[in-house]
Amino acid sequence: MDKFDKLIKILKDYQKIVVAFSGGVDSSVLTQAAHLALGDKAIAVTADSPLLQDNEKDDAVKVAKIVGIKHILMKSDDLAVPEIAANDKNRCYYCKKFRFTNMCNWAKENGFNYIIEGSNLDDKTDYRPGMKAIAELSDMVKLPFLEAGIGKKEIRQIAHKYNLPVWNKPSQACLASRLAYGLSLTADRLEQVDKAERLLRQYINGQIRVRHHGKLARIEIMPEEFAKFALPDFRTKIYNELKELGFTFITLDMNGYKMGSQNAAISQIQNQPN
């Protein structure tokens, strides 16, 4: 039995499930697998939150239609939760706990046995306090990729096999991950980084992050794209357009894109002598 067959068997054993569906490649493959395993006994639910990029929501709607699964956009007012809006190092924990508690309550009320979530083997390598919230809800929230021993490379291969348009989509994280820890989450700041990344996507290939440090925007891209910023006209255009969004200083991170780069600040704080 290969890993995908094992995944299908695991999902069949769940009998009636809700897929926590963000629109990324992980949850898209999980949605495809759930529909193959359980048909109309599986539905996909997307947390419609100000922390979700518009293109992510669009991808979720598109993939759900391709798969043929019932899809619900569930409003999630994350910024109304003070612990989330405060944006400390445990933000992901509070956010996951809030969203999944609401989703679990909804699932129980509507006769579903479990929520399934798309964490995979490769997610164990970064700082992820949200996993603590999932563990606290483990009676209801299951992680089938981990049970089946599936990592990111295999997920992309499965997505390609089933012609899912997100198969080669760069990994994404919610907009809150763009703001430096301690900088409170507001709708305006989230919109700033969303618009800035949307602008850069017109010109830059690969991973893009605009990290928000108050008045300073720190652009992370793949090193092979650095040369574009050596062109004075391009550099001036990007500078002016990001300045119009409200940033005073615009910088290019010489280290390039790094997953979870804001987490470096946590390590530095923890390692400082008293």
Task: Note down, in words, how this protein is organized.
The chain is an alpha/beta fold and 274 residues long. The protein folds into two domains: 160 residues, Rossmann fold, CATH 3.40.50; 96 residues. It is built from eleven helices and eight strands. It has a five-stranded parallel beta sheet with strand order 3-2-1-4-5, sandwiched between helices. A hairpin with a 2-residue loop joins strand 6 and strand 7. Helix 1 crosses helix 2, helix 2 packs across helix 8 and helix 5 packs parallel to helix 6. The chain is globular, with a radius of gyration of 19 Å. It starts with a helix and ends with a helix. Pfam families: ATP_bind_3. It comes from Pectinatus cerevisiiphilus.
CATH-defined superfamily of the largest domain:
HUPs
Q: N-to-C SSE series?
A: HEHEHEHHEHEHHHEEHEH
The figure for the number of domains is 2
Low-confidence stretches: 266-274
Based on DSSP secondary structure assignment, what is the total number of beta strands? 8
Helix content: 40-55%
Average pLDDT, all residues: 92
Organism: Pectinatus cerevisiiphilus
Protein name: tRNA(Ile)-lysidine/2-thiocytidine synthase N-terminal domain-containing protein
GO molecular function, one term: sulfurtransferase activity
Active site: 174
